[in-house]
Structure prediction request, 358 residues.
Amino acid sequence: MKFKNFPMVPRVVFGRGSFYALDEILSKQRKGNKAPFIFLVDDWFEGKYLPEQIPLRYDDEVLFISAEKEPKTKQVDQLVEYLRNQHENLPSGIIGIGGGTVLDLAKAVSIMLSNPGKAETYQGWDLVKEPSLYHAGIPTISGTGAEVSRTTVLLGPTKKLGINSDYTTFDQVILDPKLTETVPKEQWFYTGMDCFIHCIESLEGTYLNAFSQSYGEKALALCKEVFLGDLPPEEAQDKLMMASWHGGMSIAYSQVGVAHAMSYGLSYLLGTKHGIGNCLVFQHLEEFYPKGVALFQKMLEKHQIDLPTGLCANLAADELDTLVQVSLGMKPLWENALGTDWENEMCPERLRKLFERI
Ligand code: NAD
Ligand code: ZN
Prediction:
């Protein structure tokens, strides 16, 4: 079909303290005493206040997940195998509490518990046949839009690619901005800039339409308030959480662009995390996004963020080649950014030069 018919999160709660709605929400989804809820929780919270507030019943289980590295297909397979061995019945659902890393893992595990084979075989578009288990997402850091998207981005043995499917989208999201108040400044900036860059790439892209524009403009306005204004912390947390949501909705009906295509390459070759990778690339993209890059520089200055330098300085020729090839493989992103004639505009040599600046 020419037109996308994409699923939206059917249920969402918003508000400071809304995390406590979880008990009531899950009680309606429980499939019996022997079908536990599995909570995947960012391990930053281990030993802190949050795990004690999780409404555990019967055989429910909390698994702490490190967000140090981006999620891998193998990690999904291991979690699924562990859960199948550990519990007699399929879980009632999977609840992800964390940033994009943990949210994506929760989505992927809920898909793989009801589909056969390895996670890597589902990387792509619409390869999932069976509906996923019930899954809910509770972001604890704002920016990726993973809470609203129909993808879960995974590093597989041969590629970094999402499981894009109608079954990926969360059944329930709880947006409690209070959970984000402990995010360290630099991480807040990097993940927040993921949202800002989603807006710029969507709004400046050739795929833009009124649907994407309406969400993208709102998200961009919120980002400007948060990163260039002087909002009180609580208002900034609330607004960045909604910016992330709207940014995700904007790219759902358009696409990201040059920064994401390049950042995927960095992540694949060097393990660079998505938020900082986007920032490292975006600062050099003035020829594609002049206004966006100027705003980004202002935001860097205001928050006194020093981005690392020299990431690609000592790469061997074949490594640079890999960066270029992985990045050029993201065809829809280039087409969105530069139009149908993009291959004439973005040759490998030009892209290599851009990478060399990072
Ligand atoms: P993240 O999940 O990688 O977490 C970043 C850091 O913040 C971690 O150290 C984590 O422990 C810490 N953290 C999270 N919440 C915290 C809190 N409340 N207090 C203190 N520390 C906290 O960060 P991210 O930028 O949200 O996610 C990046 C991932 O999201 C990447 O794997 C990327 O591929 C994925 N992503 C997915 C989509 C999608 O649509 N599915 C979109 C964009 C990015
Ligand atoms: Zn992104």
Summary: The longest helix spans residues 233-252. The first strand starts at residue 11 and ends at 14.
